[in-house]
Write a structure and sequence with these properties.
This protein is α/β, with parallel strands linked by helices. The radius of gyration is 29 Å and the shape is globular.
């Protein structure tokens, strides 16, 4: 289920609260899972005592991410207990966490979420009334009064929901400050960067009200992901402004809480395990022959290439209308339509890679009665796409729509489950580094609460530096608001801006000509086209810098020593490892008497050792003659003799073939992996 579907479900739930009988919710989950979802928490807290129950698998993922961020030594100790509670698939996923884990590891999740909302009030904002509204929202939802502890005896994570919590929003007066809105946003960013949450202590959220002066206000809310997901933030702000506008008690009591959902997961675990096994078969088939996506815009660096990690833009009204008509003509959702355009752009910037995987957010709020429940229901799904450049975009959109429907229909698994059973690299990397999000928090739902004197102006998600991806594109289909979060160790701000501008330009192009073939689509924006024409038409001389291949590797090893340089099947080396190993082999060659200009024969199977051999020869100043290991031995011997090779560089398994026939030659075996 996507966030967009959730918004529609939440609207129906709101209609029911307002007394609309046509919106009656009857599905309690028993038909699909064998047991109904029933309220438990409210009765348990009736005696004013805390209620403790098992944490959900979703919360275990976030807790694990928090532990790993706090320290890998702690993580390794607790992993032993954690693994006892999980089945073999999840054990394999979790066991990949180590000191060398990739930036894109499958079990890495953001630990918290932050949003910055600005509004305008024609009348003075009632601070006490708003503070009481914040307190009532926290009291309404059990998840917001939850703390977490690891039960050493039982070897599992538990959550404790408290009957009440003393929560107060902080007030910051910036009304006399120049550029108050910018200062408030910067303070919000600082809060979101280091909220310093302790999982065993309440509360796991921070709320700040900024008085910007002139009737403008900003609200910054940072909440730990273990108790809330992005969709839940829409519920949070909706409740907040509804209570402020209509008074305490204006919303009906919440019957179902997240802990009830957790208890229901336990009761239906057997049925869910059956569904999980069925759905894993789909993913095993669907994700065969996947390849990592590399964009030409990336320039890896150990230092930050940009001071920011998020930029924004907006699709023009006319272009948005045209593209929406295209989507409707294909009987697709806005989610599929804007996702498809993102795929085309990634395809173009990857120099035409036709098959790749992009991640997207899904939610397990698959019952209407869960629509307005605050908690962490989020999941990531890897969506594989195949792009045929001979087809039109309209044809691709229909195909991708069907692909997306199939993927979303098999969501009874976690992303970690999918990675654990399938192919992933030795560095712990999952299937994707690029994500698409369908609209983020429901700004439209919040804006429905606007009154004559209170208007929402903007709703911004806050980057926290923990995102484990290269690009995350979020599109709000109704407003045309587009947000791009990017890894500033891979992309400069200019490169990220070029990609975002290209997306806006692509939507405009496709909206006006949906039947254009994919190979004929240009992703260069008008401004970028003018810049390129101006640069290429320049009459000034361009200095050509020539250098050697091994020198380029050495320079890159200095810039990004810990980045992966080469991968083959289940093997990989960082730039530092590649350069150091090649240096060691080169020194061995020199010790065997190799001098500049000497000829060296190479005999390697396809793989990393082959790359190391080539680099080592170049570093030693020699030239190389490659031998095909599948050729007959006599042919290889003749080639070695005819080229006058001084040394034969090979691996230990191939060296045995040459030991007798080429006794006069020096054999250097490469055994590095």
């Amino acid at each position: 289920m996507t966030v967009g579907m959730l918004n529609e479900m939440y609207a129906r739930a709101g209609a029911q609260d307002a007394g609309d009988d046509s919106a009656a919710v009857t599905d309690d989950g028993s038909a699909k899972y064998g047991e109904p979802l029933v309220p438990v928490l409210n009765d348990r807290l009736a005696y004013d005592e805390p209620y403790t129950t098992d944490a959900s698998p979703h919360q275990n993922r976030i807790w694990l991410a928090q532990v790993c961020i706090c320290g890998l030594s702690t993580c390794n100790c607790i992993l032993i207990e954690f693994q006892r509670e999980y089945d073999n698939a999840r054990k394999r996923a979790v066991s990949k966490i180590d000191a060398n884990m990739s930036r894109y590891g499958a079990t890495q999740w953001d630990t918290h979420e932050g949003y910055f909302v600005t509004l305008y009030s024609e009348t003075p904002l009632d601070i006490d009334r708003m503070s009481e509204a914040f307190a009532e929202v926290v009291q309404r939802h059990g998840a917001l009064r939850t703390a977490f502890t690891w039960n050493e005896e039982l070897g599992k994570l538990e959550q404790t929901i408290y009957p009440s919590v003393d929560f107060k929003a902080t007030l910051v007066d910036l009304s006399n400050e120049p550029d108050a809105a910018t200062k408030a946003y910067e303070m919000g960013l600082a809060q979101n960067k280091e909220p310093n949450f302790k999982l065993d202590r309440l509360p796991l959220l921070i709320a700040t009200m900024f008085d910007l002066g002139g009737g403008d206000w900003a609200f910054n809310v940072v909440i730990h992901h273990i108790i809330i997901d992005e969709a839940s933030l829409g519920v949070f702000f909706y409740d907040l402004f509804h209570i402020y506008l209509n008074g305490p008690g204006s919303l009906p009591e919440v019957p179902i809480h997240y802990s009830d959902f957790c208890d229901w997961l336990s009761k239906t675990s057997e049925r869910r395990a059956e569904l999980r096994e069925e759905h894993l078969k789909f993913w095993a088939q669907n994700l065969q022959e996947t390849h990592p996506l590399h964009l030409t815009l990336a320039t890896p660096s150990d230092r930050e290439l940009a001071p920011i990690t998020q930029i924004e833009a907006k699709i023009g009204v006319g272009a948005l209308e045209h593209y929406t008509n295209l989507i409707n003509a294909a009987s697709a959702t806005h989610f599929a339509g804007f996702f498809a355009a993102y795929n085309i752009l990634l395809h173009k910037y990857s120099s035409g890679q036709s098959s790749f995987v992009v991640g997207t957010a899904a939610t397990q709020r698959n019952l209407p009665m869960l629509a307005n429940v605050v908690g962490f229901f989020a999941n990531m799904l890897p969506v594989k796409t195949e792009i045929d450049e001979t087809k039109t975009f309209s044809e691709y959109l229909v195909e991708f729509k069907n692909t997306l429907i199939a993927c979303l229909a098999h969501d009874e698994v976690t992303y970690e489950d999918i990675v654990a059973q399938g192919k992933s690299s030795s560095t712990g990397r999952g299937y994707f580094k690029h994500l698409f999000a369908p609209g983020g928090m429901n700004m439209e739902t919040i804006s429905q609460l606007d009154s004559n004197h209170l208007k929402t102006k903007s709703t911004l998600s806050l980057p926290n530096g923990e995102e484990q991806y290269e690009f995350l594109l979020t599109v709000h289909p109704r407003s045309g608001h587009v947000i791009l979060r990017f890894d500033n160790h891979l992309y400069t701000e200019g490169a990220a801006r070029q990609f975002l501008d290209a997306y806006i330009s692509l939507v405009e192009t496709l909206g006006s000509d949906p039947n254009v073939t994919i190979k004929d689509i240009s992703v260069v924006s008008e401004s970028e086209h003018e810049r390129l024409v101006k640069e290429l038409s320049s009459s000034s001389d361009i200095a050509v810098q020539e250098t050697c291949l091994h020198k380029l590797v050495e320079e890159q090893a200095k810039k990004t020593p810990r980045f992966t340089a080469v991968e083959f099947e289940d093997q990989s080396l960082t730039y530092a490892e590649l350069n150091a190993t090649a240096n060691r082999i080169a020194r061995s060659l020199i010790q065997e008497g190799v001098r500049q200009g000497d000829v060296i024969a190479l005999c390697f199977d396809r793989g990393i050792s082959q790359i190391l051999g080539i680099l080592a020869v170049l570093k030693a100043g020699a030239t190389f003659v490659p031998l095909d290991p599948d050729d007959p031995t006599l042919r290889k011997e003749l080639m070695v003799e005819e080229c006058g090779a001084k040394v034969l560089l090979t691996t230990s398994n191939h060296s045995r073939v040459f030991q007798k026939s080429l006794a006069a030659k020096v054999l250097v075996s490469v055994s590095v992996l």
